[in-house]
């Protein structure tokens, strides 16, 4: 059983392939790459594949509007409905596509992953590294990438256990652009030569982009007058370095004597997060082997190491794992509020603080039933399975509530407490079994997809609800009466300790007609005459 996801991957019917070719590629070059990939995709069994849609020069973004560029492309692989596919698991098809595609020529970056809908539609692996210095952020990102590339974890169970690195297509979200040339001015040499930085900046701007020195009006339009070096004279970096700058003494100093040239990789986009410079680490996982929660939990050690090694940067989890944590946190809070309200209502109805606990004792057994169901069905614990558990809790509480109420009524009638409890439990045996069996069997078609009841989103919820109800109800038939007897014995013992008769006032009740009941023999309590 997996450790948890927002929504099960069984409901996936689309796979996305996003790629980026070399920065010098045009639309025609990118189109050629796409055509070759499409040929490979069409070798997939047509029982699994429905449609392939390709976009050139366009790519959807996870965090914002689409991106348009001639070297970007995206392929949508739309699968047939799960009940019609030969390969039911979309993750198996995704791995097959990865094998078919391999590493295409002229492709610098490529991501292949399933497309999810709803709250679980996030990246499998996603960490945001932010800070004030790009240099420090890049160091932290490089360290994490190195550790994650060498990461291994245990997957499978029994004889199928193995150590693998489940992370695929790990990358940063820095998008490389063209090379950048930096002219670094040696301020000491410039000062000795009698040249200031503004002069250097002005000469370089004039040589490359030109200077706007004046605007004139011609035919009611403003026309800018630009001063720049002839384009034929500036073809290379060396041509710029040969430019001469006049100093305060009227001397013409070659630019190359006061600057040095540095070439660095440029980026097309520099991202920020909460006002700070940021880099994201992204990746997919092999969901055929494991799940998002398990991998991110195993990676937590690497993240903590990176935080200690680079205290100047902030590292936080994002993507599907963050969504999953928020979803489960909200669900747990809602469940806690619901349990508190149930307790308050029961305490008010029964006039006791102990009996609500006896009634609610059935809930943990419902949870045990859910966990056993997930284990034996090799199903991942998802948001919908826990929604099923929340619904299941209400049903098992209802069964326990009615049983305890019957026992309370028996206590009024029988002097023998054990007989009262036994009769109360026996009277509810048939109704609980009948309602449990009919409810569970009624949910089986949805849980297993029988008779056209194949809804991937609701199947996990129906599965845990049906089997969890069967388990919890059967256990309740024995546990609740036992706890009720223990409660009564504890109350009797407590009354003896504090010096009161254990039976005092316990069997004395008054109805609306002021009719009282009292113990007359060891087995029965009889009605006495109405008090005048």
Offer a few descriptive terms.
13 helices, Alpha-Beta Plaits, 5-stranded antiparallel beta sheet, Multidrug efflux transporter AcrB TolC docking domain, DN and DC subdomains, single chain, 532 residues, alpha+beta, elongated, 4-stranded antiparallel beta sheet
Structure write-up:
Residues 501-532 have low confidence and may be disordered. With 532 residues, the protein is α+β, with helices and mostly antiparallel strands. A hairpin with a 2-residue loop joins strand 10 and strand 11. It has 13 helices and 19 strands. The radius of gyration is 37 Å and the shape is elongated. It has four domains: 1-119, Multidrug efflux transporter AcrB pore domain (Alpha-Beta Plaits), CATH 3.30.70.1430; 123-173 and 271-317, Multidrug efflux transporter AcrB pore domain (Alpha-Beta Plaits), CATH 3.30.70; 179-264, Multidrug efflux transporter AcrB TolC docking domain, DN and DC subdomains (2-Layer Sandwich); 324-527, Multidrug efflux transporter AcrB transmembrane domain (Multidrug efflux transporter AcrB transmembrane fold). The strands form seven sheets. Strands 5, 8, 15, 16 and 17 form a five-stranded antiparallel beta sheet that branches. A four-stranded antiparallel beta sheet has the order 2-3-1-4, with helices on one face. The protein has a two-stranded antiparallel sheet with strand order 6-7.
């Amino acid at each position: 059983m997996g450790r948890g996801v927002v929504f099960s991957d069984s409901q996936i019917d689309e796979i996305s392939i996003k790629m980026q070719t070399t920065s010098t590629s045009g639309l025609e070059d990118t189109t050629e790459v796409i055509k070759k990939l499409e040929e490979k995709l069409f070798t997939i069994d047509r029982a699994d594949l429905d449609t392939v849609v390709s976009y050139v020069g366009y790519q959807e973004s996870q965090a914002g509007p689409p991106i348009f560029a001639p070297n970007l492309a995206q392929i949508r692989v739309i699968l047939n409905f799960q009940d019609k596919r030969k390969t039911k698991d979309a993750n198996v098809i995704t791995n097959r596509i990865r094998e078919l595609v391999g590493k295409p020529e002229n492709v610098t970056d490529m991501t292949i992953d399933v497309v999810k809908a709803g709250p679980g539609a996030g990246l499998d692996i996603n960490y945001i590294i932010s800070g004030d210095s790009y240099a420090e952020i890049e160091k932290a990102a490089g360290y994490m990438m190195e550790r994650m590339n060498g990461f291994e974890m245990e997957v499978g169970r029994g004889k199928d256990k193995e150590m693998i690195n489940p992370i695929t297509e790990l990358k940063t979200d820095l998008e490389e652009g063209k090379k950048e040339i930096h002219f670094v001015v040696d301020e000491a040499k410039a000062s000795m030569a009698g040249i200031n930085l503004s002069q250097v900046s002005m000469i370089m701007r004039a040589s490359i982009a030109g200077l706007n020195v004046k605007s004139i009006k011609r035919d009611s339009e403003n026309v800018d007058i630009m001063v720049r070096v002839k384009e034929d004279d500036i073809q290379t970096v060396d041509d710029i370095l040969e430019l001469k700058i006049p100093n305060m003494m009227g001397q013409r100093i070659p630019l190359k004597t006061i600057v040095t040239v540095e070439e660095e990789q440029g980026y097309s986009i520099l991202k920020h997060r909460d006002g700070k410079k940021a880099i994201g680490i992204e990746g997919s996982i092999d969901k055929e082997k494991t799940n998002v929660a398990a991998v991110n939990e195993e990676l937590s050690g690497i993240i903590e190491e990176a935080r200690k090694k680079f205290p100047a940067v902030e590292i936080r989890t994002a993507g599907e794992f963050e969504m999953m944590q928020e979803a489960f946190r909200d669900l747990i809070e809602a469940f806690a509020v619901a349990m508190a309200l149930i307790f308050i209502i029961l305490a008010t109805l029964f006039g006791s603080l102990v009996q609500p606990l006896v009634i609610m004792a059935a809930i943990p057994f419902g949870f045990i039933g859910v966990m056993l169901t997930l284990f034996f069905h090799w199903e991942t614990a998802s948001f919908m399975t826990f929604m099923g558990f929340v619904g299941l809790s209400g049903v098992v509480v209802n069964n326990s509530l009615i049983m305890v109420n019957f026992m309370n009524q028996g206590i009024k009638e029988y002097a023998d407490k054990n007989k009262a409890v036994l009769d109360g439990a026996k009277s509810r045996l048939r109704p609980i079994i009948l309602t449990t069996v009919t409810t569970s069997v009624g949910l089986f078609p949805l849980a297993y997809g029988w008779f056209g009841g194949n809804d991937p989103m609701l199947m996990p919820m129906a599965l845990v609800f049906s089997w969890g109800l069967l388990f919890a109800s059967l256990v309740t038939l024995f546990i609740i009466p036992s706890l009720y007897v223990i409660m009564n014995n504890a109350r009797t013992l407590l009354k003896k300790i504090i010096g009161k008769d254990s039976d005092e006032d316990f069997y004395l009740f008054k109805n609306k007609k002021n009719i009282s009941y009292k113990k007359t023999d060891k087995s029965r309590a009889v009605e006495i005459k109405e008090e005048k």
